[in-house]
Structures are given as structure tokens and as C-alpha cells.
Write a structure and sequence with these properties.
162 residues, twelve-stranded mixed sheet, 12 strands, 1 helix, mainly beta, 14% helix, Immunoglobulin-like
């Protein structure tokens, strides 16, 4: 027979499970007031042998704007921040920084983000399933290294940005 004590103990365990599981399954990092959500890489559809890095988004929960001003990885000789939305037939533009307004999530997704990171001159091949470190540099928050998951392109949505 269930007692009130069993019910309370079961409820407490369920609440702990709900509270802890999202963090255990979450894939990202925090630095200052920034939350870097779900870093992932896809092969470039237009530049064979090169990969693009995306994020579900970068959330600035602070009251002060910040900027992504650089990135690097041991796997590439250069990481280029690009504005992904370019006129048809034009290459995405390299930009020096990406603004991160306060209290906003800036999407960097392959299907609807405005920005992306291009890994140039890979020092070793990347294949789907690989994981690698990427260090991001922010103007105010400093640096943070995230683990990027290499995936296969789900469809041709990458080409919609060109």
C-alpha cells in the first residue's frame, strides 16, 4: 500500500529527474552571460573538403551587448565568420564580428541562421560522427571552447543561403 511518504519520495525523485535530464542531455556551453547552444558542423555543399559550423543559437541573457570576434580549432588553419545570407550566385561575405544583442538569441542554424563559421584548410579530414574542439572569442565574455559534433547534411537546405 502506498503511503503519503512513498508518494512524496516518488514525486521528489520525478522532479529531480525532470530538473537534471535536460542539463545532462544539453550540448553547449556558457561563458559570462552567453549560452552557446548545440554546436554542430556540416560539410560545405559548395566547397569540397571544407566544413561549416553552426549553433542552434547564441543566447545573450545579459543586459549588455557582446560580439563574437573570432574562432579557432586545431583542425583548420583558419576559421572564417561569414554572413550566410548572400545574394544568389554570390559567396557569403566574411565579416569581422557578429553582434549579440542583450536578451536575444541569435540563431546560427544551417536552415535559418544568418551567420556561420567556415573551417578553411583542414589539417585532417572530418567525417560525420567526429567531435572536435572549437574555441570562440567574444569581445566582453572572453573565450570558451565548445565540443562540435560533425553531422551529415539533412538535405539541400544549406544551398538555400547562396
Amino acid at each position: 500500500m502506498l503511503t503519503k511518504r512513498h508518494f512524496i519520495a516518488g514525486t521528489a525523485l520525478s522532479l529531480c529527474h525532470v530538473a537534471l535530464v535536460p542539463n545532462a542531455l544539453a550540448h553547449g556551453a556558457r561563458v559570462g552571460s552567453l549560452r552557446i547552444e548545440h554546436p554542430y558542423a556540416l560539410p560545405s555543399p559548395t566547397e569540397p573538403g571544407q566544413w561549416l559550423v553552426f549553433f542552434r543559437g547564441i543566447r545573450n541573457s545579459g543586459n549588455q551587448a557582446d560580439r563574437l570576434v573570432g574562432a579557432n580549432t586545431p583542425l583548420a588553419s583558419e576559421v572564417v565568420l561569414q554572413r550566410a545570407l548572400a545574394p544568389r550566385g554570390k559567396e557569403p561575405l566574411a565579416i569581422p564580428a557578429m553582434d549579440l544583442p542583450p536578451l536575444v538569441t541569435t540563431p546560427m542554424r544551417h536552415d535559418l541562421g544568418e551567420y556561420r563559421l567556415l573551417l578553411k584548410n583542414l589539417k585532417q579530414p572530418i567525417k560525420p560522427g567526429d567531435r572536435f574542439d572549437l574555441t570562440l572569442t567574444f569581445q566582453n565574455a572572453g573565450t570558451e571552447t565548445v565540443k562540435v559534433y560533425a553531422q551529415t547534411a539533412p538535405d539541400s537546405t544549406l544551398e538555400k543561403h547562396h
